[in-house]
Sequence to fold (582 residues):
Amino acid sequence: MNEVSHQVTARPKILVVDDRQENLFAMATLLKPLDAEVLTGLSGNQALSQVLRHRFALILMDVQMPEMDGFETVSLIQEYAQSSHVPIIFVTAMNKEGEYISKGYQLGAVDYLFKPVNPDILQSKVKVFLDLYREKATVDKVLHELKHAQTELEHNHQELEDAHHQVAMSKAYVDNIIKSMNDTLVVIDADMTIRVINQATLALLGFEEQELIGQHTRLIFGEELIQGTFIEELLKDGSMCALESTYMTKDHRTIPVAFSGAVLMDDQGHFQGIVCVAQDITKRKQAEEELRKAHDVLELRVHERTAKLEEANSLLMSEIAERKRAEEDIRNLNTDLMRGKAELEVSNKELEAFSYSVAHDLRAPLRGIDGFCQAVWEDSRHTLDPTSQRYLQRAREASQRMAKQIDALLNLARLSRTELEVEAVDLTTLAQSVLTDLQSAEPERQVEWTVAEGLRAIGDTSLVRVALENLLGNAWKFTSQVESARIELGMSQHTSNPVYFVHDNGTGFDMAYADKLFMAFQRLHGLSEFPCLGIGLATVQRIIRLHNGRIWAESAVGDGATFFFTFENEDESGIHVACANS
Fold:
């Protein structure tokens, strides 16, 4: 039995690679019903060893592995001729960002699944590739037999006709396999005309085969596939998976489906058509709708329960005789509130840690970009035309500006982990020091600034200085286009607690965008007009909140801006500190 015939008759092999033995066992168990031999590897090296010894129909590759990750392993697998065309599906519980998914497809992956894997989806996708592998093996066998028959043509013309007959039978066999698949399958040519359609598609849409063969895909494909970027992205990437769209039935109903596609190319690399495989997700959509309704019901119940609690608290105030029961309810409520506060603190810490990690990881590629641009500038700037030199400098400036933004983001993330060293803070002295530094940095500017005497508060001196540097720095920057610039730090007594303010007569802003004012990287003015990192006011808000205070602003375009802020910390005597002379 030759190698081609052996591929047709032997059970197809699937390679599962994961650095955890329990994951390998789970995958093997899920794939057992698919009539395939499942081989495993605990590392990239074991996977390469298996590829050298076996011919696989499909590889399921974990991304996160020690020593050699899934991307590196796939790159090496692609270098072997016998494994370069093996379809690869990445399976991972991490790296859901678009850049990692795109990297997987660029390496030649045909799909990307996230853990925990849905067993039905996994089995359906694997079965499609097993069917295609068997079909390819069958076609290879037929081609092999045709080649052998061609060499015998001069000896026996009858054998040639028998071979042609065998080809026709094999083609019919392949067609039957396609038409018997459980998932819908449609093959279209370069003109978007339907050429092959299986029985599952016909049954789902209610058409007869002769009604669709030779027709344009707009007859059954949803508008998002015809007018969207599905075809364009397929031609660019070679494959796509899990795009949610719709099928149109014969009676004009729409059926939600999850599309996967692969481009068909001839031996010369010319586009021939597209294989589209789709799965009916009607039940999943219904489940999502039921979940949404259940969530709405839960929200209603929570609202009703909150109303009942408020009513109970009112009764507790009027029914002195039930004091013990009321006290118990209050204790229970306090316990729930403390638990909620603890959970909120944990969530905030996790979010801050994630932001810190992402910002930290972005610094390395930015240093690389800046370094390479610097190297090109030093080595080749004399050979570059002025336009190229300007582009190179702009690339360096952009990478350096991004690095500064990342540093600012890291500093913002660190604020939430900062332990406050609470003490009496002399706001007047701090503000005068900051404004003096600003004046020294730009001695040519004429700015009239005023700081009220005796402003004091309770807080962390270093953090309060950072807040004042940002607020006064903004006032200094946004008055740069005003002839008679004025900046003032003062205090007003709106309530029992002092309210401090920083006022300037600068360019101001539109209050319609005030909700974006304290959001990171949200700028209300163009970078060319007022260069900034977009993180200053977010930092100020974080510092004020650490002091249990609040901050808000009032402004009008061309009429300056006023930022109000409070500190709610208390001194050791429990008295709010405002002004020493108040």
Observations:
- Residues 10 and 95 are 36 Å apart (CA to CA).
- The two ends are 102 Å apart (CA to CA).
